């Protein structure tokens, strides 16, 4: 299938590693021009070089901090200067520290909202006019399975990513007639450094070896294993594609059947 992504301009947040990089690599493999973003300059440079060495799509990078006051305006301006605009925006942020809902402090909630919610919404708002004007655009927001099935001990993540779900659905209805789709991609247990971290926290909390905790986690997934980043990236690339033009306002799962709801 031709995904119609050749020379499309894609801006991918938090893409020096993990899920963001997986989606960026999948877009570049389809011929897209990709801008990687993050705080780790060396990781970004290495990731871009690896993409460019494959000789299909092109990648460049810029260091950004989602918590900076001028994050959205600065990045939107950089994308305009380097790419002449953006066709595809992949929203992605890191996750907050684990913790119980009963222990959430207002200061922590507001601080995390400033890095997980506010910058995503502001940046999208700045880039949407260009997409709407050309009659084609894709907004893909990477979130978490915790939106549909709250994850124990990840109360801040469950709360804030659910806020993005409401925003995404509302936005999708506003811009659908202008050729722009807005979807969310929900990972289950995709094997990344973040999942290793969470398994380590669970092992410490339960007083068990990490290998035992991981085995129990994998056993709870119908597919019987953690997902691979490239599998996740492929789903992301499809949602950003031309053939997916009639898919909008959705929350797509990539979870090996882990989420139990219908």
From TrEMBL:
InterPro entries: NAD(P)-bd_dom_sf, SDR, SDR_fam. Belongs to the short-chain dehydrogenases/reductases (SDR) family. This is 3-oxoacyl-ACP reductase.
